[in-house]
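Table 4 source record.
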Amino acid sequence: MRYKIGDFAKILDTSVRTLRYYDEMNLLKPDYIDSFTGYRYYSENQMDQFKEIKYLQQSGFTIQEIRQNKNKWNDNLLYQKRNSILEQAKELQDQIAKIDYLRSHLNSHQGTFNFNEIKVIKKERKREIYEKNL
């Protein structure tokens, strides 16, 4: 069975715009395009392809990464992405630690502080804080 783009979008709880973008990016091409009307039609088996793309996006992969690795996913690619996300998480945790330090310093100095007085949190301390919060 074929679905018009609007119907396909409703079924998948997405927008027609997203489907057109996926088509432009060669991620999910319509099963059939009517040469007279230009209407795009999608088949039922393309629903799983759409869900795969969305799941990969929700897992942190960019459209470019999904397109580049289409049909060649393997454990190594997933492991590399996992490590990249872990590194980003560590950086975010470091930023949170700095903000927490600023807040505590601000609170202990009646709402004002001098940046010259603030010490830089050493990497070992940041790592300690990160590991403690895991």
